[in-house]
Amino acid sequence: MKRLITAATAISLLAAGFASQAQAQTRWDLATGYGDGVHHTINIVQFADEVRAATDGELDITVHSGASLFPQGEIHRAVRTGQAQAGELLMANLGNANPIFEIDNIPFLASDWDSSERLWEVTRPAVEDHLASEGMRLLFAVPWPPQGFYTRESIADIDDLRGMRMRSYSPMTTELAVQFQAAPTTVQEPEIPQAFSTGMINAMVTSPATGVSSQAWDFVDHYTDVQAWIPKNMVFVNERSFSRLSEEHQAAVLELAAQAEARGWEMGIQETEDATNRLREEGMTVSEPTAELRSALEDIGEEMATQWAEDAGEAGQELLQTYFGE
Per its UniProt record, what CDD domains does this chain match (predicted)? Predict the structure, then answer.
């Protein structure tokens, strides 16, 4: 009998030990709509690995890429409601909730790396405040390469885009297609090949990185490198999930998030060169915009900036004034 009690006690202690270990480990699901080969996802996976190492495995972040956990359009709500602890989105996808999220989609407002970084410095506090109001916390934001046009024929002027079935991925790109007198069609990144093959779209404005990940050379022949704007993805976390971490782990997550942001910007710059070269290697014609096309796009950009400022109200106008140093 004594041996049975001793054995039972040992089993109980062992079970308690396993339970204690299970309770000590916190698991986060991080949902993203982008594939494994995109520099954003590569950066996020590295961030998750670094968090796991820094916390001795006590915080384990599983990255669910390619919309495998939630469709891209549902990630914001999933994180807000706690169905996923963290997520990644193109910031402009939330433009209908707050115009601040689509400021980096205004054509030619910030189309080089220095101005894009300056724009982010100015707008980041407003983005953080909005997320906080919804019970979420910004971790980091990383840019895409500058945006250009993918078409089957070369384009010399804005009129060449009229009537095209153009992919849109945000409220601002939908408005841009309307300005071109094209037909905007919402297509998320993983769906691009199917959308082209079925004729849903026959043109798109996006980055060279997305052109490579979607193998755009299978569907179009021309990439016009207008470098119209530099959009960003942001990674954010449910505040309640974050607050449950120890102070030590919170500090580690924030420090590694800052490193991921700095690394991600460098990756975006390098990806611009690498992906553009890849488009050439795959046989696509990569060209600079004509003076006529660029002038027309700049005019549209001014109109869209004016409309954005009206929609954003006084707060948005103050942000633009700060950005321009007025």
Answer: PBP2_TRAP_BpDctp6_7
Beta strand 148-151 with 26-31 is: unpaired
Give residue 319's identity as a one-letter amino acid code: L
d(CA 324, CA 326): 6
Q: In the predicted model, is pLDDT for residue 238 greater than 50? A: yes
The pLDDT of residue 24 is: 64
Amino acid found at 310: E
Q: Which CATH code fits 2-323?
A: 3.40.190.170
For a pLDDT cut of 90, what percent of the chain falls above it? Answer: 88
The domain limits of the chain are 2-323
Main-chain phi, psi angles of 83, to 5 degrees? -70, -30
Joined together, the tokens standing for residue 51 give: 């968090």
The pLDDT confidence band at residue 35, using thresholds 50, 70 and 90, is very high
The answer to whether the CB of 245 falls within 8 A of the CB of 253 is yes
The count of other CB atoms within 10 Å of the CB of residue 160 is 18
pLDDT of residue 13: 47
Cα–Cα distance list, 48 to 29, 37, 55, 117, 236 (Å): 10, 16, 11, 24, 13
Q: Which long-range contacts (CB under 8 A, 24 or more apart) does 119-123 make?
A: 119/323, 120/232, 122/319, 122/322, 122/323, 123/319, 123/323
pLDDT at 318 over 80: yes
Q: Residue 191, Cβ neighbours under 10 Å: how many? A: 19
pTM of the model: 0.87
